[in-house]
Amino acid sequence: MSTQLSLPLIAALLLSIAVIAPALGQRAPNNLDETLGLGVCSALTLVKSAIIIWVITHYLLQPLGLLFLSSITEVLVIATIAYLVENRLHGRYQKYFPLQGNLLPLIIANTIILLLPLIRAGEIGFFTYLARAVLFGIGAAVLLALFQILREHSASAEIPSALRGPAIDMISAGLIVAALSGLAGIF
Fold first, then answer.
1. Do the domain assignments include residue 1?
2. Tens of pLDDT along the chain (187 residues)?
3. Is residue 162 part of a domain?
């Protein structure tokens, strides 16, 4: 499966995490500022993790024949980088991270979802890999911000009580993914 064909799937996974997280007891972003913080933190974690994972895979795991350790290595690198990035940004930008560590599970999940197509893309050059990571990070931040804007708009709209909350969020997410599927078909 090519990276371009998986973009709607990636969007669906990102948005479903944003909807399901509160049901699992995880605090989701409440406003656009927190969502932008989540998006930027996920993008920075993605780019930094992508660089480290590429270097570890190509200069350590492949030469030593230890590719079976790649999945655990990827998760450990992502979790560590997410923790470091979130801590650093929390200290500087309180507006975007009101509670330290509260978005960490979402950041890790988003980064794993965004990084999987890059890791599994096969042999691509480092700069192509890095460019895709940067673009995926920017795209994810924009997607999450768009979803939060729709969420805030639906909170003030007249919606039947049966559709309020997660139901309208899943409908909004589905419409965004459908639009992305159409765009992916054009390009």
1. no
2. 444 446 667 777 777 777 777 777 777 777 888 888 888 888 999 999 999 998 998 899 989 999 899 889 988 999 999 999 888 888 788 777 766 666 778 888 888 888 877 777 667 788 888 888 898 888 888 888 888 888 888 888 888 888 887 788 888 888 888 877 776 565 5
3. yes
> How many structural domains does the chain have?
1
- Tokens read off for 123: 């042999």
Three-state DSSP at 111 gives helix
Give the Cα separation of 45 and 86 in Å (integer).
Answer: 9
- Residues in contact with 99: Cβ distance below 8 Å, sequence separation at least 6, in sequence order: 27
**Residue range(s) defining the domain that contains residue 16:** 7-186
Q: What is the pTM of this model?
A: 0.80
In order of 2, 48, 116, the CA distances from 72 in angstroms are 23, 17, 13
Q: Which amino acid is at 129?
A: Y
- Is residue 83 in some structural domain? yes
**Which DSSP string do the residues of 36-62 spell out, in sequence order?**
HHHHHHHHHHHHHHHHHHHHHIIIIIH
Residue 10 tokens read as: 């990636």
Encode burial over 3-37: b for 16+ CB neighbours within 10 A, e otherwise.
eeebbbbbbbbbbbbbbebeeeeeebbeeeebbbb
| Residue 2 placed within a domain | no
